[in-house]
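Example for tutorial group B:
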C-alpha cells in the first residue's frame, strides 16, 4: 500500500492520478499480493497443512480483489 501511495502521490494533479501512474502503481501492488499468495500456497504444500498460511493467502487475495479498478474510477481518469 505504501509504494502504491507514493507512486500515486508523485504524479497526482487532482483527485485521481494520471492513467500511467494508476496502472503502474496497481501492477506493482498486485504483483506483491500475488507473490505473498504464491509463497503462502507453497508453504501449505510443503508442510501439508492449511494452518496459518492459508489465512495469509486469503488476506493477500482480498487486498487484490478490493483494489481492482472499478469502471467509475477508470472513467474519471479518462476525462
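The residue assignment follows.
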Amino acid at each position: 500500500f505504501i509504494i502504491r501511495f507514493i507512486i500515486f502521490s508523485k504524479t497526482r494533479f487532482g483527485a485521481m492520478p494520471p492513467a500511467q501512474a494508476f496502472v503502474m502503481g496497481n501492477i506493482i501492488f498486485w504483483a506483491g499480493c500475488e507473490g505473498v499468495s504464491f509463497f503462502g500456497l507453497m508453504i501449505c504444500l510443503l508442510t501439508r497443512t492449511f494452518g496459518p498460511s492459508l489465512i495469509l493467502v486469503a488476506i493477500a487475495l482480498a487486498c487484490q480483489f478490493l483494489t481492482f479498478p472499478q469502471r467509475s474510477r477508470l472513467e474519471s481518469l479518462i476525462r
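The two ends are 25 Å apart (CA to CA). Compare this with the pattern of hydrophobic and polar residues in the output above.
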